[in-house]
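[Discussion] Sanity-checking designs against the backbone

I'm trying to build intuition for which residues belong where. Below is a structure token string of 292 positions. I'd appreciate it if someone posts a full sequence so I can compare it with mine line by line.
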């Protein structure tokens, strides 16, 4: 299959039609290049807050409410486009009020059959928990799709190996991200590449890019799209199938043959995924030894 991953820049929106046109254009372009799986980044839906004006878009709490109340309408748009183009789409994540005490950070996946599912972020960054008061949502999920088994680790989640291990049956791990600084981008990228190494799978990182002075939450963003695999038989020696250009908005594409995932899991030069369990007895039996 061909995978398209986004370096996505936010827009100031004056109308819902403008948003529809933008998303339709992005999806049409990727589908026109033959992409079957399209991945948008974390918090890419924050641009919807601009529809309620500068005061709302610039306020942390009001922007949550504004975006959350528009996500069902956004879902309908993404489902329509997925069906129209015959593609699977991971939509940009958003803060969503879902009956919990505080909002969760939720990414939805849309199939061309009209089905949809969602993944909530598990572990919050300091900004999310200390300033924005976003909380961890529902459990990790494995999506069984026509393209293969897909898991989602939203940004910071990719930096935690046990979350990746929980999704070890996934052929593809999607990592939508929103990182302010270059160091943040590299933390998530290293996490995405490490999870591909450990689970011997393909990981797909999408990034928010650009500056948005109207927002306190997504005001500065650094990143690029990238698709990674285990540096083993059938994959590039670097593990990098493709990477985009830093802070340049657009799609980055890679052709991915999932039979290579099965092959490397069964007969790779190393077998990280299989040998993972050999850590367990060893890490519980760590002993202290004085060298003084």
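Best answer:
Here's mine. Compare freely.
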């Amino acid at each position: 299959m061909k995978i398209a991953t986004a370096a996505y820049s936010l827009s100031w929106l004056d109308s819902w039609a403008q948003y529809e046109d933008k998303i339709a254009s992005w999806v049409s372009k990727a589908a026109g290049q033959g992409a079957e799986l399209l991945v948008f980044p974390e918090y890419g839906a924050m641009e919807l807050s601009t529809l309620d004006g500068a005061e709302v878009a610039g306020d942390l709490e009001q922007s949550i409410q504004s975006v959350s109340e528009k996500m069902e309408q956004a879902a309908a748009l993404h489902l329509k486009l997925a069906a129209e183009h015959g593609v699977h789409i991971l939509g940009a994540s958003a803060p969503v009020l879902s009956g919990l005490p505080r909002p969760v950070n939720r990414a939805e996946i849309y199939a061309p059959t009209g089905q949809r599912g969602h993944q909530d972020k598990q572990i919050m960054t300091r900004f999310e928990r200390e300033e924005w008061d976003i909380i961890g949502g529902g459990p990790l999920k494995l999506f069984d799709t026509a393209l293969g088994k897909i898991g989602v680790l939203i940004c910071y989640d990719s930096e935690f190996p046990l979350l990746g291990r929980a999704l070890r049956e996934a052929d593809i791990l999607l990592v939508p991200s929103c990182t302010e600084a270059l160091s943040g981008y590299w933390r998530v990228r290293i996490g995405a590449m490490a999870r591909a190494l450990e689970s011997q799978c393909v990981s797909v990182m999408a990034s928010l890019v650009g500056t948005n002075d109207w927002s306190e939450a997504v005001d500065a963003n650094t990143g690029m799209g990238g698709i990674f695999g285990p540096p083993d038989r059938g994959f590039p020696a670097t593990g990098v199938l493709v990477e985009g250009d830093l802070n340049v908005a657009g799609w980055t594409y890679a052709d991915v043959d999932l039979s290579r995932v099965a092959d490397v899991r069964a007969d790779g030069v190393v077998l990280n995924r299989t040998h993972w369990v050999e850590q367990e007895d060893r890490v519980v039996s760590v002993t202290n030894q004085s060298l003084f």
